[in-house]
């Protein structure tokens, strides 16, 4: 069904829609024309991602760091131990990559628990490139 036929069909099926002006040939206008159909495509942007990092210090017990990684970052004991050792040896380690709100929440949870246990553990987030 051509666009003009479709619009004519819609007008006929809905008596509230205005019809074509008197004397207009079927299909509209002077019999020559182009119907243009545009379709808007919505492009969604992926959210920015943030890396959550643990920073090494000389006072926070290693077992506490492993516990944090298991509890807040859903790491297995083996994964958590590997990350903790990396933090200990390199000074910084990646806990995970998250959207802004999730990363912000995880950083706050880690800092809160460390503070309650009187550990100077630092956790930060940085935007991924």
Write the layout of secondary structure elements.
Blueprint (H helix, E strand, L loop, with lengths): L2 H11 L35 E7 L6 H12 L3 H14 L1 E8 H17 L5 E6 L2
Antiparallel strand pairs: 1-2, 1-3
Subunit structure: Binds to the N-terminal domain of the chaperone ClpA.
Function: Involved in the modulation of the specificity of the ClpAP-mediated ATP-dependent protein degradation.
GO biological process, one term: protein catabolic process
Structure commentary:
With 129 residues, the protein is of the alpha+beta class. The chain has two domains: 1-40, no CATH class; 49-127, Ribosomal protein L7/L12, C-terminal domain/Adaptor protein ClpS (Ribosomal Protein L30, Chain: A, 2-Layer Sandwich). The protein contains four helices and three strands; from the N terminus they run H-E-H-H-E-H-E. It has helices at 3-13, 62-73, 77-90, 100-116, and strands spanning 49-55, 92-99, 122-127. Strands 2-1-3 form a three-stranded antiparallel sheet. Helix 2 packs across helix 3 (77-90). The chain is rod-shaped, with a radius of gyration of 31 Å. The two termini are 50 Å apart. The model is unreliable at 5-12 (pLDDT under 50).
